[in-house]
Design brief:
Length: about 260
Amino acid sequence: MNPTKIVFFDIDHTLYDPASRCVHASTIHAIEMLSRQKTVAIVIATGRAVYMLDVIEPLKSMIDGYITINGQYIVDQGVVVRDAPLNQDNVETVAKVLESEGLVFGAIGATRQSINKLDDAIIAEFDKAAMPHPHVDREFYKNHPVYQLWAFADDAMRKRIAKRLPDYPVVPWLTDGFDIIMNKQTKKEAVEFVRKRFGIPLDKVYAFGDGENDIEMLAHVPNSVAMGNASIDVKHVANHVTKACDEDGIRLALEALNLIPK
């Protein structure tokens, strides 16, 4: 493959609609049309891990690469090209703070994730997000490489954790919870890593997203698109704003950017 352009897509609330638990038909059709442009590479850029990607099954045959876990684990055309677990001391520092606050939190590993507590309410949250249930292991982060930590919490608790951990970015979800990114590796750095592998200039890079973990990527990429369902902060840094994922947002933006025919 020798593309001259590259398009990065977030998953949740961008390609995948958690409310409807599907990739909408208009999105599938738009990605199919994009994949026919042989000079365009299509790459996922998500906070999900590789084992959480079943939600985009209808699109997988058209995807050229995957930035997962917010950049910690990258797959380029089927080959793992970045595998960067976090520093163990940092992981333990953060985990101890989360434990001291009595939070339900999880650790994302290479092939599975753990959680310190699992009950019916938490299982329902994972089912709602169409994610596999984590296994309960309070010691997982001590015995396995960890790529990211996360926790369920309201906004007040998130701010409290951010104050207790000023050296670690605490990135809020759209719902009640947050991720903690510990090695300054974000989707922005991952996009740079992948685009340089393809040898594509920055002005030929496009990115779609909606969440707080997309902000640095969208601010960096000159052809960036915020979904209509994105927060004000996300829309503010993007160069374009399209409709929501359930309102043909992907198709409309790809057409407006002349990446697919109208």
